[in-house]
Amino acid sequence: STAHPFYGTGAQAGITTPVQRYSVFMTFDYTGVGAADLQVLLARWSAAIAQLMQGKTVGEVEPERVDAIGKDTGEALDLEPAALTVTVGLGPGLFTDRTGLADRKPPLLRDLQLGDTTIKPELNGGDLSVQACADDPQVAYHAVRALARMGKDSGSAATRWTVMGFGRAAAGKGQSTPRNLMGYKDGTRNIFEADDLDAFVWTSDGPEWTRGGTYQVVRKIQMHIENWDTDRVSDQNNVFGRHKVTGAPLTGTQEFDEPDFAQQDASGSPVIPATAHIRLAAHETNGGVKILRRGFNYTDGINQFGFLDGGLLFLSYQNDPAHFEQLQSRLSRSDALNEYITHIGSGIFFVPPAPREGSYIAAGLFA
Ligand code: HEM
């Protein structure tokens, strides 16, 4: 099975890597002292991730002294690397007096300013993010578990919140477009080209260690899928501005036809409605902004009322968090989709570029 390299000269793996089938996302509170514990944690996590992405363990499963505690928990033994990627992000809370790193903050890293009222406190923020993606869910879970264990044992990182994604809801370059839990193709007009990645995703200024990195926004978006399922398909199509089966814009017949936002029907109404998700989100209408989306479907089973509880683990990458804010503010004001979704979790992180072989994530931060 595929093994992706962890070390490199560009971005961390797991951003433009072809989207895997499963994902486990987790955030952590930093519980260490000063900057030194953080440095050790990132070094240890990096070494572990490099091993894990090769399909190896993070140490012995059954130590020679069998009354000792195993370094690796063992559940990924005999499983292939399964295209595992583990992507690590740094939250705004790391760059404070607590660590003495306040003046080292990646220039645009700060809490999102959206005036959100629906985010649950227990699903908000975090000092570190870990996004593990793999084609085998057990491989992804094992990776996060191994890092969580290292964080806890060293007293440096405590788990905060997590989402388990069970199916990809975004296409990377050359991949067929998967569907979200509303039944629509998601990722049709994502960022695929290198020019757009340079213009909208990778940072090009700021301190040396941050260059070629990106800002990660995560939103746990609950879908009211039982309501959605009672809506007629013509209405659903109007919510997105696309056809359900083909994924074509309402002004076209094929998935990749360009949406024509100017086209009107016989009565003079826009064919892609004013409140359609794609009209509000498209760069043609939003002031030229594009973001890279790499989300996953999730389910939390059934809620306390017996309703099916699922949604979208929305993940986007952009070189300026204001781009996400700009888009989300537009959507929160007028998107027809709002009737069927609630944003319940949120976080923002800076994802430093991949470390070179022999180094570790964000090493330059401590130089
Ligand atoms: C497009 C679903 C939330 C930004 C789309 C499309 C679907 C979709 C089906 C059309 C296919 C495509 O081009 O990918 C959803 C669902 C959401 C959600 C179900 C929530 C549960 C968001 C959020 C943002 C966003 C929070 C950003 C703040 C975009 C963008 C496009 C898009 C930029 C491409 C528009 C274009 O250029 O045509 N989304 N989306 N979406 N969405 Fe969302």
TrEMBL record:
EC number(s) on file: 1.11.1.-
An example molecular function term from Gene Ontology annotations: peroxidase activity
Annotated Dyp-type peroxidase N-terminal domain residues: 12-166
Cofactor: heme b
Sorted UniProt keywords: Heme, Iron, Metal-binding, Oxidoreductase, Peroxidase, Signal
Family membership noted in the UniProt record: Belongs to the DyP-type peroxidase family.
PROSITE patterns the record matches: DYP_PEROXIDASE, TAT
Protein's name in the database: Deferrochelatase/peroxidase EfeB
Location of the Dyp-type peroxidase C-terminal domain: 177-354
InterPro entries: Dimeric_a/b-barrel, Dyp_perox_C, Dyp_perox_N, Dyp_peroxidase, TAT_signal
Superkingdom of origin organism: Bacteria
